[in-house]
Structure formats: C-alpha cells, structure tokens
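seq as requested:
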Amino acid sequence: MGELVFVGLGLHDEKDISLRGLEEAKNGDFIFAELYTSLMQGLNLKKLENLLGKKIVLISRRMLEERNGKQILAAAQKAKAIFLVPGDPLIATTHVDLRIRAEKAGIRTRIIHSASIISAAMGLSGLQNYKFGRSVTIPFTNGDAVLETPYNVIKANLERGLHTLCFLDIRAKEKRCMTIKEALETLLTIEAKKRNGVILRNRLVVGIARASSKTPLVKAGPLNEVLNHDFGSPPHTLLFPGKLHFMEAEALIQLANATESIRKQVK
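struct tokens:
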C-alpha cells in the first residue's frame, strides 16, 4: 500500500519547512508541489530541491481540480508520494478533496503542518484568534463585475463585533498578488454602490505584508491612511477589526503603529 503525505511549506521561503516536513520529503519516492494557492516570494525551487536532494514536479490548478490529482494518486498507489503545499497544507486550499480521494482508494494519508497566514496574521497584529468571524477572499475584478461577498462578510462580522481576515487574490500564472491598496479600492467601490456604512474612510483596518519574512510590515489605522501606506512587495493580507479588547488595542499601538485614539474603540 502506498502513502500520500501533505507537507506544509510555510509562508516565505524554503527555510520555512519544518524539520519533520524536511525529513518526510527527503524520504519520499515522488515529490510534488503546487505554488498557485500562495506565491511564496522568497522561495527558490532549485534551493528547495537541493535541500531535499530530490526533483520536484510542479502541479497546476488544472491538474488538481480538473483531473482530480490523478498523477499524484497514481504515484501514491505504489510508493510514498509527498505533496508540498504553501502555508499549512489544508488551510485555505481545496486539497481536502485530494485527501478524500486518496483515502477512498486505500492510500494512507498524513499531514505535516506548518505556519499558516491565519495564525501569522493574528500573531503579527495581536488580535485574538477567538474573536475572528468568517474569513473571506477579495478577488480581482473581472471587467466591470465586482463580487460583493467580501463586503457582506465584513458587514456580518462587524455587526457581531468580530474581526475579519481577508485573503487577497492571487493570479499565479501572472505572478501577481493583489495589494492592500487594490483590495481597499475594490471594497470602496462596493460601498459606493451599497451605501451601508461598512467600508468607511475612517474605519480601523490592519494591513500586513510579507508575513514570516525578515521584513514583515504591519500597519493599523484609518482606512484612508492604510490605503495610501507603502507596504512594499506582496504578499499582503488585510484585517478588519471588530470590537477591541484593551490588550488588542495595546498590541495595535505597539506592534502596528496605530495611534492612541484607538483606545476609544475598546469595548
């Protein structure tokens, strides 16, 4: 019986893989990787191959979603297959389907976890994890079409006093990541249409850039200020805080360069 091991690569470069993940990959017979769910800006594929001592086969979205990961499953039927995934392997991806298919085919599966942008964003900002509501992705606009789901999710979370983590869209083929500025401009466009008072220019938001790198940047402040802040190169992440605990306010002041005035939002 073969085996399929999902191994998290972490958030930034080849050094983010865990020791356990590295050990598993070195002992794998076939090594696959996908790099379309997150663009790891510091990752050098050749350095990762040298680290593992193995050749890595890159898997496209089409291979996984349209062809049901048949290449990976075929390898795992007869040997130990490793699937390298950015972040934590089954967080904010569609790879659960691949794991289910493997188990149904009698293939043993295991997961080697790693850092996720979800935990990293909370840690960098100081916002408490149990106060987050539903997360949402802000997509690139398709022509004139603007998807309103992110706006509605943020609105629902704010009404409950909960924070919102916004994943920003990625176009892997173009090697393009949505920026915080683009995300906020998209939401402002929806606000101009719906006028529900959700995405306001003075709304407290938190922008995060390059989590897990040596130069992460965290900035909290009024939307209009964060909109025009220079976050540098992506990947970027956006947070909409709900009701603040006094410790969260302190964290945003000390860790995210927020002004003392946000203490007034503590409830």
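Residues 3-112 form a domain with the Cobalt-precorrin-4 Transmethylase; domain 1 fold (CATH 3.40.1010.10).
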